[in-house]
Design a protein that fits this description.
Layout lengths: L1 H16 L2 H5 L5 H13 L1 H20 L8 H16 L2
The structure holds zinc ion.
Length: about 90
């Protein structure tokens, strides 16, 4: 059961993470914002990714006043996934 659930969550996560940038830019519709916040509350992986992304975006903005470089978010997510799999025994 948990395996099937994880698969569904992973699929859901991809859709959620693709909306993080818009969310941080306040460009997300209110309804989507709420769905994203609900998902963050119940998904530690996305929460960790979101916190890291938020930190990175805040840092970039304070330093460069520029958006994240192309592909940076994908690399970030891949790094987190790698760290997760390494932590598993
Ligand atoms: Zn998630």
């Amino acid at each position: 059961m948990s395996k099937i659930m994880n698969k569904n969550i992973d699929h859901h996560c991809k859709r959620m993470t693709s909306a993080f940038s818009d969310y941080l830019d306040n460009r997300l519709k209110k309804q989507l914002c709420q769905r994203l916040e609900v998902h963050l509350a119940e998904c530690p992986d996305c929460k960790m990714y979101f916190d890291t992304l938020k930190m990175t975006v805040t840092l970039y903005r304070s330093l460069e006043q520029e958006p994240l470089p192309e592909g940076a978010e994908k690399r970030l997510f891949a790094t987190i996934k790698l760290a997760r799999s390494k932590n598993r025994t």
